[in-house]
Amino acid sequence: MSDVRLTRRGLFFTAGAGVLGVAVVNTLAGCADDSPNSPSGSSSTPAPGPADIGGWKRVDMSYVSAYLLVRGKEVAVVDLGTPGSEASIEEGLKAAGQNWAAVKHVILTHQHDDHVGGLNEVSKVVTASFYAGVLDVASIITDARLKPVKQGDEVLGLQIIDTPGHTLGHISVFDPSNGVLVSGDALRTNSGSLTGSDPQYTTDEAKAATSVKKLATMDIKAILPGHGEPVLVNASAELQKLAATL
Ligand SMILES: [Zn+2]
């Protein structure tokens, strides 16, 4: 059932991509699922990979994803997966025609190990600024220097959105130029449809629900979650539907 749905989403996107998506799709398409680390379990992904609305690439590392946001000659990486993720991220950079030298910004959505696991290794190979939410910074054990960020801050033209609940310092990253939201664990699709933070790993469920409602008021065109497939069609409507249940 979810396959049908995802396929329909994919077709929908292809038909509606128009001028906005074409140039980027040409440079980045087809690389969404070619990571050598992709398990066979990811084969449910539709073939015509609706990979891009404006310069982003998913690095699919089994159950968790990182995202590369390409802006001109610079790349912002959002989240760093589990320890050892640097090889997958490097593959992703290559597939996007980029390399570590282009990575000037690394944004961590929250403190959990499956999102910051590659931090120590990656901080050795890039000359970049590293960011995490104000209330999560102290919980991330690393030699890397982390800059605390919060609502209203901007990194490479990307807006930091406070989305507390999953952790108290959880942030999401929003690209106002194209409506792409990297949601970390504030939103996920690994249960088959769009849902909020997994209660099992949520610090404050009331705050998490409020964060979803806040996101539902934004003009979001695509949701790139930490866990599960991106939502590339009707993202705003799906988000509002979810918010109405909370
Ligand atoms: Zn998490």
Mean pLDDT: 83
First-residue to last-residue Cα separation: 24 Å
| Silhouette | globular
- CATH secondary-structure class: Alpha Beta
Portion in strands: 15-25%
CATH fold topology = Metallo-beta-lactamase, Chain A
Class by alpha and beta content: alpha/beta
The count of β-strands is 13
Structural topology:
Elements: H1 2-16, H2 18-28, E1 56-61, E2 64-71, E3 74-78, H3 86-95, E4 103-108, H4 113-116, H5 119-125, E5 129-133, E6 146-149, E7 154-155, E8 158-162, E9 171-175, E10 180-184, E11 187-188, E12 195-196, H6 205-216, E13 222-225, H7 235-244
Helix pairs in contact: 6-7
Q: What are the key terms here?
A:
246 residues; Metallo-beta-lactamase, Chain A; globular; 7 helices; six-stranded mixed β-sheet; alpha/beta; five-stranded mixed β-sheet; binds zinc ion; 28% helix
Quick structural summary:
The chain has 246 residues and is of the alpha/beta class. The chain is 28% helix and 24% strand. The protein has one domain (3-244): Ribonuclease Z/Hydroxyacylglutathione hydrolase-like (Metallo-beta-lactamase, Chain A, 4-Layer Sandwich).
